[in-house]
Amino acid sequence: MINWEELKHIHVIKKLDEILSSWFNTAILLTDSHGTIHNHTKGEKSDCNNMLVQLILQSGNGQEFLENFSTDVCNKIAKSEKALEVVDGPLPNTKAIFAKVKIDNEFLGAVFAWPFLPHDLTSADKEALKSAAIREGLNANDVEKAVESLKAVTDANLYYMQELVQLVSQEIETLHQEISTREERINALNKELGVRYRYDNIIGKSKPMQDVYTLLDKIKNSDSTVMISGENGTGKELIARAIHYNSPRKDKVILTINCAAFNENLLDSELFGHVKGAFTGAVKDKKGLFEAADKGTIFLDEIGDMNGTMQVKLLRVLQEGTILPVGATEARKVDVRVITATNKDLKSMVETGEFREDLYYRINVINVHVPALRDRKEDIPVLIDHFIAKGCEEKGIAEKRLAKRAMEKVFDYSWPGNVRELQNEIERLLVLTGDDPMIAVDLLSPRIREFGEHTKIQGVRVAGKLKDALEELEKTMIREGLKRTNWNKSRLAKELGISRAGLIMKVDKYSLDKRKIFASMNAKNRTPLDDVEEDYYEEEEKIS
Ligand SMILES: Nc1ncnc2c1ncn2[C@@H]1O[C@H](COP(=O)(O)OP(=O)(O)OP(=O)(O)O)[C@@H](O)[C@H]1O
Ligand SMILES: [Mg+2]
């Protein structure tokens, strides 16, 4: 199945549509193999530039009118060998081009370019066309304007038009293929996934996460100290909680202490408590966090930021299982499990003397390393589903999904901020996407949308065949135009809808410069007209 919905947003296809519309004033209809049109939604205002198609789509049964035609053609071409054909359009004396979309040799849809006029159209033919359009219920004045704006296409131009329409169908085929390959890749990765897709609130099906789960299972019933390491936003705190809530201590508290945020003066009494009169303001005994967490868990986050004095004190707690409240003379026994987390490389901090070696070995009894998201991309789809489901439930809205193109971009991005960054992106998208059930690729943050853009296939595709074809077309248009306007660049630039400077650059690029052409021309082939032209040219040079 082709995802037409997505294809109409694709840049290359939009661009081709624009080119066909500006050169030939024709519209592009994308249909499935039954002739059902997919790039215009019934009852919605169409962004098509061709006035006649606009009028038809706006009229009551315009879509049916066009679909009767496309269905008819699709039925006929389904069996034929031809990939592309020029046929009579749904209104008399108009022409249409269609190109098949074939995937694995199967006819899955078509690209229609309609309307344009044959080059030998008589004014009587044109009147017949107008009357037919009016009979279809269109307003006579509108029809007059719409039909007059249609282009009669010469044989030479018809060739380029066919090429362009074919390019649209080829683009669709390539993109479809690319999307399926990507899906296969994701599916293949999925096969390698473990059975568990979550551990408490930790989401992840990847092999590395399965290993984390296995380790968490093993340490579930032990009291040993655990150190969780991993980059920012990989879910270290989530894991610390999972460890606590799966341990026999789960009915007691888990207290989190952010070592980086700790004020050294407060530290002692905060962590270990104090006795009445220990210092000014110590009017009564106060329990420290370690005592408050008795029989529970203490989570020391950002342990790499813990200063030297604090490191000594912590070491004592870990070694002796006792604390000494400020001002107390006797140590008190505490039963706490210590879990630490860091995104720093503690090992090298030990080497540089920033972190105590003895403490390092004390806290690093068991190490849980959380892999970065870019090393387990296969978790991205489940994480996205999870965050979308969560977000939509919170908002009380129906679930949305990510367009495939958007999913690909998300997949390719390197996620320096890991799961947190992904979560923030999804939350942002849910807000931006409004009522639309599908999250479109253009809504993605630019850094994600544009990631690796210049190195990706799309650029290559545009640079290859399409670029050649477009340049060829451009060159011909300009060459013919120069002849027709007697090398009047100002007039031609206006006709082509580009600046005069732009035209001069293109003339240069394609070596359509008259002087060069004259130079290569054999003198005896010259006609009087050539001299006239040359005068014109010199005149032009003076102006510019
Ligand atoms: N595997 C995961 N499944 C679901 N949510 C996750 C996962 N990993 C991270 N998150 C979410 O991402 C955010 C960051 O997670 P968390 O705070 O646990 O990361 P961290 O490693 O402690 O980050 P930091 O290094 O910045 O302190 C949280 O909102 C968390 O719920
Ligand atoms: Mg954290």
Structural features, described:
The C terminus is likely disordered. The chain has 4 domains: 182 residues, no CATH class; 172 residues, Rossmann fold (3-Layer(aba) Sandwich), CATH 3.40.50; 78 residues, Helicase, Ruva Protein, domain 3; 87 residues, Arc Repressor Mutant, subunit A. Helix 5 packs across helix 6 and helix 20 crosses helix 21. Strand 3 and strand 4 form a beta hairpin. The strands form 6 sheets. Strands 1, 2, 3, 4 and 5 form a 5-stranded mixed β-sheet that branches. A 5-stranded parallel β-sheet has the order 9-12-15-8-16. A two-stranded antiparallel sheet has the order 6-7. By secondary structure, it is an alpha/beta fold. It is built from 23 helices and 18 strands. The radius of gyration is 36 Å and the shape is elongated. Helix content is 51%, strand content 14%. The site of adenosine-5'-triphosphate has 15 residues, from strand 7, helix 9 and helix 17. Magnesium ion binds next to helix 9.
* Uncertain stretches: 455-463, 519-524, 526-544
Helix fraction by DSSP (H/I, runs of at least 4)? 40-55%
Number of helices: 23
> Gyration radius, to the nearest Å?
36 Å
Shape: elongated
Task: Give a quick account of the main beta sheet: strands, pairing sense, barrel closure.
Answer: 5 strands, mixed
Which ligands occur here? adenosine-5'-triphosphate, magnesium ion
- Global structural class: alpha/beta
Head-to-tail CA distance between termini = 55 Å
Q: Overall pLDDT, averaged? A: 85
Assess the beta-strand content as a share of residues. 5-15%
Number of strands: 18
User: How many domains, as an integer?
Assistant: 4
